[in-house]
């Protein structure tokens, strides 16, 4: 009886694992095949291993524009998430730890920003940037990506819970300035929260598709998602792009998978406490 | 005291300025733009922007395809969100029950799809669904997963595939945060795993479920990457298939005033829906 009890759950989890991993396995196998073998060999197993050739072709295509897209993605996403996390942390911390007139008003306005979908902002942002003739630039995607109201919300909750007032008072008596105290003491206490905010922000920017789609016209500025999308729309006219799209898709997920594997310990712990409060 | 104000300015001002410039200003600007319209004197006359009052909104409210697309994403959400969160909850409970070995492995395996950006996931599944490219020809030759009837649910599968693991992780983390003492009484009463899950665990992780539901509602109304990509694979996906595709194609006409009105209506609908959901669940909790 006990064994039966364990068997069913394990079967469920096993079936689910297949569902989640087979598509990625297929992508890996497909990206390792030559164009000729892609359609006429077993789809879920390797034929002649041509992944290296495919990669070479991918990175050489149109003067290596794909590598450029990967770098752009890292800059847009990594840069915006790092800086954005710092800004959100400072703001949330100040809202938690200082009393001043207008505090609740600021917090409520920022909080209602969480419910405004990012995609609703893309078009008006485009119109505003075009007033300054600044569309189709790096900054037109980077600057709007810095703002993360949900990060402020999380930072405030964590700061309230994890940074004791007595500690700040003690730092003040020791003659430490407010800003120095924040960077030397408070950020350390808030560290798990900061990792969570960073990851949330990272994924949000990474997945924001409408903003670069509307804002950017020049291929050189594309993030990798938009680049792959633009190749994929041309597949029907230029069939040789198909293998490049597949190989590119594989390459584009490798960095994020690695980052998740490394950060998953923080990610899991931080998320939990965020969801409970 | 002077130091406090200096520090406050330093902490708050950068975020508040950026928030005002890239969150508040666009909202106000979209509202303003939506109140204008372009007028031409004669067929070839110069185009000028004039105040149009609620003209654009009248067009939005009488725009058949737009409301069809709203209906489509609502239908999508009513089916996909419960399925996705139901699966996430079941997986989280199974992980937490101790009945399954290799927890670490499953947690990671389920979470990997979340690392795949929506566009890339849609491209990948697009290939998997295509009758002549798919590895699952037995399925794709029997049913056309990309035809007008099924393509919406094929997309629902893509979204589910990406987000189940993420939602599972949120729910699982809050299950882990439940102190063990809570289960003691249940054990003494002889409650089984299912009984414990139903009467103790699920009520305690309700806040996490509510949070994931709100995020899912917002995400569903914003559906864009999947339908945009699927236009390459399926002729059934039109340029007005979802509200955000409508915004995009209207702005590339270009008719910015109408596109702005679409954006405003969509943002309002999203806020109202997620706010209403929060209110309803809170009221349920009070009883």
TrEMBL record, chain A:
Residues 70-262 form the ABC transmembrane type-1 domain. Pfam families: BPD_transp_1. The keyword Transport applies. The chain crosses the membrane at residues 7-28, 74-95, 107-132, 138-159, 189-209, 241-263. It is a multi-pass membrane protein. GO terms for cellular component: plasma membrane. One of its GO terms (biological process) is transmembrane transport. Keywords: Cell membrane, Membrane, Sugar transport, Transmembrane, Transmembrane helix, Transport. The keyword Transmembrane helix applies. Its main location: membrane. Belongs to the binding-protein-dependent transport system permease family. This is Multiple sugar transport system permease protein. It comes from Actinoplanes xinjiangensis.
Automatic annotation (TrEMBL), chain B:
InterPro entries: MetI-like, MetI-like_sf, UgpAE/MalFG_permease. The keyword Transferase does not apply. Residues 70-277 form the ABC transmembrane type-1 domain. Its main location: membrane. The keyword tRNA-binding does not apply. It is a multi-pass membrane protein. The chain crosses the membrane at residues 7-31, 73-96, 108-130, 150-172, 204-225, 258-278. Signal peptide: none annotated. GO terms for cellular component: plasma membrane. Gene3D superfamilies: MetI-like (1.10.3720.10). Keywords: Cell membrane, Membrane, Transmembrane, Transmembrane helix, Transport. It holds the Pfam family BPD_transp_1. One of its GO terms (biological process) is transmembrane transport. It is found in: Cell membrane. Belongs to the binding-protein-dependent transport system permease family. This is Carbohydrate ABC transporter membrane protein 1 (CUT1 family).
